From TrEMBL:
Family: Belongs to the PPR family. P subfamily.
Top-rank taxon: Eukaryota
Protein name, UniProt field: Pentatricopeptide repeat-containing protein
Keywords: Repeat
UniProt cross-references to InterPro entries, sorted A to Z: PPR_rpt (IPR002885), TPR-like_helical_dom_sf (IPR011990)
One term under GO cellular component: chloroplast
GO terms (BP aspect): chloroplast-nucleus signaling pathway; mitochondria-nucleus signaling pathway
Pfam families: PPR, PPR_1, PPR_2
Repeat positions for PPR: 43-77, 78-112, 113-147, 160-194, 195-229, 230-264, 265-299, 300-334
Stretches that traverse the bilayer: none
Matches recorded under NCBIfam families: PPR (TIGR00756)
PANTHER family reported for this sequence: PENTATRICOPEPTIDE REPEAT-CONTAINING PROTEIN GUN1, CHLOROPLASTIC, PPR_LONG DOMAIN-CONTAINING PROTEIN
Amino acid sequence: MVDKGFVPGSNCFNNLLTFVVGSSSFNQWWCFFNENKSKVDLDVYSFGIVIKGCCEAGEIEKSFDLLVELREFGFSLNVVIYTTLIDGCCKKGEIEKAKDLFFEMGKFGLVANEWTYTVLIHGLFKNGIKKQGFEMYEKMQEDGALSLCRDLKSRGLSPSLVTYNILVSGFCKKGDTSGAGKVVKEMEERGIKPSKVTYTILIDTFASMDNMEKAIQLRSSMEELGLTPDVHTYSVLIHGFCIKGQMNEASRLFKLMVAKKLEPNKVIYNTMVLGYCKEGSSYRALRLFREMEEKELPPNVASYRYMIEVLCKERKSKEAERLVEKMIDSGIDPSDSILNLISRAKNDSHVSSNND
């Protein structure tokens, strides 16, 4: 169309650009943009689309090169573009660049919005910033994130559920359940109800801390609020009980989720198999193996190894060999340690039969 002398307007080109960026490889759409940028009418949104594409592709340097071009075209950066760049820098671990962009916004009179603060808070937690990072927040990363949140509120912007969940997750990752609890309390005081995600983050944290009593209590509180636990919620609870070796509790939850018409996924099945193997219950583990086969859910390498190990301990070398064959058929190469387990089991069986 362009080659025939028809010049599309910026809106038309932006729609096409959005489609090309979303459906092509980075090199393909990057070439498309550069080949056409001098032939069509561009606006600030055109650059916003391409900058977002570069950030999503991890091409941060190209995003900054585009800023130069954007200004050469006579356009000014807006809050959306700044936030996109800040998000891209945070995801690449380049917090200093994110900081510079944040302060630059203020210099140009642009007011950060709720999403800007959200990506910054997420970036602080994700990148483990402690005494480095933002000049105005010299304390621990949690203080920095909360300071950002307070700054957000002081500007008349209300933190969203997403922002609060990021804060809860950040505290939980540091093992600070007290801090996470304060965030949840603040949410409730501001009229924002904790979501299924909020509760699952907390349940996962207490399960990881070996406090299954609290984890189960949180699941009950969740249900009392009308929030239905999903597969992920059950997964973290089942994993917690399996780690503690409480397979009766894990099995009870497994049956409960099935009764609630929630289909266990491969993560839950593999977790249960490992739990039964550690318990020495090869019969129960094998039964789950068969269920996985029927549902076309692939066992992972750890499940195969533990399953083969428990079978070898029970001198069931033939069953163990059949599992090795299934491993190979599914495209998993058995390690030398697995093959050695079977070899020893076969030798033990041979010695035992000769002694008999």
